[in-house]
Predict the 3D structure of the following.
Amino acid sequence: MSAPPASHESKGMPKLRLNALRVLCEELRNPFSAGETVRAGVCPILTTLATKPENKETREAASKALCALAVDSNGRASMTENKSAVEVLSALSDASPIVRSNIYDALVNYSAVREGVNQLVEAGYAPVLVEKAGKETDDVRHMPLNLLYNACKNENGLKAALESNAVEVCIENLGHKDSLVKHHAAATLGFLCFADSAKVTAIQNQAVEMLSELLADHFWKVRASAASALMSIMQTDAGKKSFVSCEGAVGKLVKLLKDKEDLVKINALKAIACAAVHPEARREMKESSDCLPVIHQIVDGGDPFMSKHASLAKDAVLWEP
């Protein structure tokens, strides 16, 4: 005997659910409505709908709503209470790049708070994100790198990432064609390199050479994160030596002092202060027609924060043994 035909209600349910999810996304953008919606218990429903239904459109709409939820402080608290990070981990392997992108976005916003970072680490995200950063599709690949950066803010997360070869994966992505991938790879690598073992691995795997090339990248966020990563690596003598041995690296770093973006200039000043400890780098900087004159301009420029870092860089360049 054949199964009875589906009722009119069951046929229309996916469309009804999609419409409800779309309305919910709009409501969650309103802080007043978001609080009431969260208190009504929407969080566990969204995590289920983002991971379970066979209907791709439902998963995409639910993951988008979850992303909106994670922007709200009440939503993040509810995600912690409901252990949402554990529940949505499987969605990072969803066949739909839209679902994956939405879940990554939601988790990046969620991990903006300490409770979110801790739950990511407890759920075992660090090694998963390292793997995803090496295999994700090009248009999504920057997202696991960005989320990995947040996961490494927890000591156990940092340890798990390093043990999963996160440094090597970040270095591999420095050569990616996508600018956002390069930016997040360099930023995450710089964070990882606060650990001494990561500095050693980075130097051994030619990260300094690749980062030095990225100082001249067309995208300012890549330049900023490359300078920051070099600053981290150059905390060691081996890092300074590796940087100085890169042809034209000092000149590229000095050129960033005239960058239009303040973050690029700040990171360049920090990197210069580190590199100038090396005699050869210090000599090149003193002989540069731009380095000290531009640093002096920044010192006198009226921005206290910028002036502070420029003064430190100037003292490093002018230091005499």
Remarks:
- Confidence is low (pLDDT under 50) at residues 1-11.
- DSSP finds 22 helices and no strands in the chain.
